[in-house]
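Supplementary Text 2. Reproducibility record for the structural model of the 244-residue chain.

All settings were left at their defaults, and a single model was retained for analysis rather than an ensemble. We include the record here because the model underlies the residue-level annotations in Supplementary Table 4.
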Amino acid sequence: MIMAEYFDAGCSRRLPWRDRPEAAAALLAALPDPDRGFDAIVVGEYKRAFAANQFEQLTPTLTRYGVQVWLPEAGGPVEAGCPLHRMLMTVLGAQSQREVLRARHRTLAAMRAQVRMQGRYLGGRPPYGYRLVDAGPHPNRTHAAWCRRLQRLDPDPVTAPHVKWIFAKRLACRSAAGIARELNERGVPCPSAADPGRNRHRSDRTWSLRTIVEILRIRDTPVEESGTASRAVTCRTRKHRVAS
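Retained model, structure tokens:
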């Protein structure tokens, strides 16, 4: 008999179970209760509930309170002492982790293509060397009705020459520390000094090694600075009383 259902929406499977508010933290908090009303947990899909070695980390806790875990891949309850089941859990954990990495790479590749090929602006603050310019009416009618317009990244006429100079010096085998030192000697405003209103939290007004490294890392496709991917991975767990 199914006693209750737990469902986490918008919670990544990479988070430990104790950091998931619904399907994990509430379920783990109910385990010590002798009147919890269930003696087994049925997981509909392993990849939505566990990642990497999370199942192995939870096994001692579940065994201590006498709660079984049922999986479709195992054809029933998982036996912790069975070598075949341990190998199955290892393979499933690796597949779940691989799915997370594959989704991340595909999302970042699509974002890079939007910036490089379409000039799309993905949100966030434009990186040093770029500015926001109008890109015409919004193609979505709903957004266009609200007078929203597209924006795209365009080289900043003030700071873009400094970025080109940094790359030219780097291609000439200059070190990042040497580039930062020469910029400070020339009196070139660093990113926080070029736009102090947007960088009120920064008190340093000089070029540093870290700043140069970040500019070189972003290159001509500022995906990491212009936007982040939205990930919504759900976890579904059921509390189930197993009939003997």
